[in-house]
Amino acid sequence: MELELAGLGVSVADKRLVRDVDVHVGEGSLVGLVGPNGSGKSTTLRCVYRSLSPDRGEVRLGGENVTAMSLRESARRIAALTQESQSEFDFTVGEVVDMGNTPHRVSERSDRARGRGAALRAVGCAHLEHRSVLSLSGGEKQRVLIARALVQRPELLVLDEPTNHLDVRHQLEMLSLVRRLRLTTLTALHDLNLAAAWCDHVYVLCQGRVVAGGPPTEVLTPEIIGEVFGVRVHVVDHPETRAPQLLFSPVESGTDPSKGHQRP
Ligand SMILES: Nc1ncnc2c1ncn2[C@@H]1O[C@H](COP(=O)(O)OP(=O)(O)OP(=O)(O)O)[C@@H](O)[C@H]1O
């Protein structure tokens, strides 16, 4: 199901957090939002999974305005994995995964068990079903949350920093898993090299606006990334995958970030 953000704008107490954001996520594609801290990535995602209402523009899923849907319908169709998704309660992994059924009213125990088992196997966590989520490592928790999203059978997956707190192996596994699902996915990512390696398209946000969008090779350039992040960047091809890889030159603290890419 394709996702379209058209002219999205969000203000809080007269402050414009994001403005004129246009983003397209084609059916089954993985699209990344990148940008400096505070550039509006999470705010944009919140509008998609409806924890925030945009005051301008629209979020359309398969051509339908998401804000016109009932909350139950959007909760069924959109799964979100956010920093707030982490449970502070002593649920078992199985119970957390079952929560993905909530918007579907799946009441048969055997149906729940089948869905739970399939989802846990898909993320390689079947052995964790009876463990407390509080005892899991960061990587295991993230995978369990993906299993919960799978049980939900969503049309759209929204991920806010899914690789946060994961070691390099688990970061790669997480994005490989997301890629394999072939679900329409919009994700915020801090790591530009992960975005380069895994995303079909990348949008760069800066001060609440989209300043570039397109395939990683066109967007993750020294000029664009240097300008937006205030760093000097070299781009090389990954020797195996040919994806662009960004190498950053050291910065001195206290220098003007907006001049970073221009230094010799
Ligand atoms: N409820 C709010 N009230 C006021 N300002 C807010 C609110 N929510 C977010 N902001 C501000 O909006 C801007 C964008 O925040 P957002 O969390 O979307 O950025 P981000 O790109 O996800 O940042 P990060 O990379 O640090 O997670 C920030 O300046 C933030 O302080």
UniProtKB/TrEMBL annotation:
Signal peptide: none annotated. One of its GO terms (molecular function) is ATP hydrolysis activity. Keywords: ATP-binding, Nucleotide-binding, Transport. Residues 3-232 form the ABC transporter domain. PANTHER family: ABC TRANSPORTER ATP-BINDING PROTEIN (PTHR42794:SF2), HEMIN IMPORT ATP-BINDING PROTEIN HMUV (PTHR42794). This is ABC transporter ATP-binding protein. It comes from Actinopolyspora mortivallis.
